[in-house]
Design goal:
With 91 residues, the chain is α+β, with helices and mostly antiparallel strands. The protein contains one helix and six strands, in the order βββββαβ. It has one domain (2-89).
Length: 91
Amino acid sequence: MMYEVSSRQTDRIVIACDSTSGEIAARGMYTLLHCPPVPAGNFVLARRHDDGRSVVLAMGRMHSNCMSSNLAQLRRLGAELGANEVHLLPA
């Protein structure tokens, strides 16, 4: 079961619920500033330019089960690289 919620024009949030385990995970595209706590999983950090072009700056995987720690690491790396967009992908 999947639900899509769009709260801001720049953010697209997809919430997926695994019917067998009942686990809920957020995934989608967020601004670096508005990214929610991040569960273990894959990410892409990108720089979106004013003309709409997007450049991938980093791709990786978060391994920690501590979502706030993952978010802090993503924001730090994003700030160092000049990212303004985070894409969260399923594990």
